[in-house]
Amino acid sequence: MSPLRVAVVGSGPAGTFCAEILSEDTGHEVQVDVFERLPTPFGLVRYGVAPDHQKIKSIVESLTEVYESPSVRFLGNVTVGSDITIDELRAHYDAVVLACGAPLNRQLGVPGEELPGVVAARNFVSWYSGHPDASFDTSVLTADRAVVVGVGNVALDVARMLVRTPDELRRTDVPEHVVDALGGHSIRKVYIVGRRGPAHAKFTNKEFLELAGVEGADVLVSPDDLELSEEDRAHVAVKPATARLLASLGKVAARAPLGRERSVRFLFHRTPVEFAGAGAVGTVRLTHTSRPENVEDLAAGLVLPAVGYRGVAMGGVPFDEASGTIPHRDSRVVDGERPLPGLYAVGWVKRGPSGVIGTNRLCAAETAGALLADASSLIGTGSGREGIDALLRSRGVAVVDWSRWRAIEAAEASLGAAGGRGRVKLHDRTDMLIAAGVAA
Ligand SMILES: Cc1cc2nc3c(=O)[nH]c(=O)nc-3n(C[C@H](O)[C@H](O)[C@H](O)COP(=O)(O)OP(=O)(O)OC[C@H]3O[C@@H](n4cnc5c(N)ncnc54)[C@H](O)[C@@H]3O)c2cc1C
Predict the structure, then answer these.
(1) Hey, what domains does the chain have and what are their CATH numbers?
(2) Is ligand 1 within 6 A of the CB of residue 154?
(3) 409 C-alpha vs ligand 1 centroid, how far in Å?
């Protein structure tokens, strides 16, 4: 019997977990090709998870093992949609799994959002993570104050990165220009503004404690913001994790400021209603959520909205604009009510931007389960991966395979060693391709 041939689009956790599950002993011989638009694998594990979260990033070791299996290939530096189309993949493989994540930023819908100095947190994250397509104008770091909008873990990540000391940054893998820019910027006050109150904040106690323990800044919480309504109390009573977070917030609120040069202040129950300024943002107008007549103007030259993400439509694939995801039924992509044979979705593009890395493993198990349940009707419907290899060659696509990615990793280790640091990321695509040996 011929093998089940599967193409996965995207090498983030969702796509990699899916490849892993498919390549395990499933009762079928399975060949999996994972296509990735970047020369580097692992999606947001490399370009989202904060650089000072090296423990979380150690998941890379188990993700790496997936690509060392003889039945899984990595085809990096191949953009599905331009280098190769979805229809071409569907013609050559028995099944295609879409695992392309949620790369677009959600908008706040607040007047002035388009002003220079208002920068989606994801762009800032991409820049400090060394993403090759990051666009971030470092001149905004000359501001004195920054406002982070949102009370999720990403909001706390970006606030923490703004107050890390150069020594702390040097212990991570961020590129040297990021150490220079973040280590020497002039932002002294960072505000984290949340519409929600502390009982409904989305960040975890662990993230909060980490921020509260930074060396370079005072972390400030106002006791007034911690007063709970009846409804809040009922909510907390059944949420022990929230009760622990409130206890930590309470301890920090009771702490006397240490007089450090930098500070991070939480402002709960506030909504930004306008960003204003002549030529660039200078003021954020906030209203109090339950007392809209309470208006505050906060001076700030940098605003980082961290309010969520959405997927991006891909030619030939149905897309739900409202949710920013690919419509599916039990992981099978549908066009209206009609399932599209052999087309599946997994991860953030399937369920939206929620959950931690491990959530994608459960999601991948569902998707792989649906695909394997359909296997008998799929096997033999694709013409084979050889045709795809020939197509990519004929189009001059410089594929970065697994051994070439390993060469990029080696170059990053050498770069770090040369600067007296651990591994340091390459951030320029051409440098990556040179290190991979596919460009001169
Ligand atoms: C800033 C940030 C910090 C986070 N920190 C943590 C954390 O500390 N701990 C934690 O557990 N979770 C964290 N998460 C959540 C976690 O990263 C996600 O749950 C997970 O990455 C989603 O996996 P995914 O594979 O669906 O998407 P992604 O990780 O986004 O992977 C999608 C991949 O598809 C590729 N791709 C997209 N389009 C194409 C195309 N056309 N052709 C080929 N390839 C394509 C992309 O380049 C990317 O590599 C964080 C998320 C963000 C945004």
Answers:
(1) 4-103+310-399 (3.40.50.720), 107-307 (3.50.50.60)
(2) yes
(3) 19
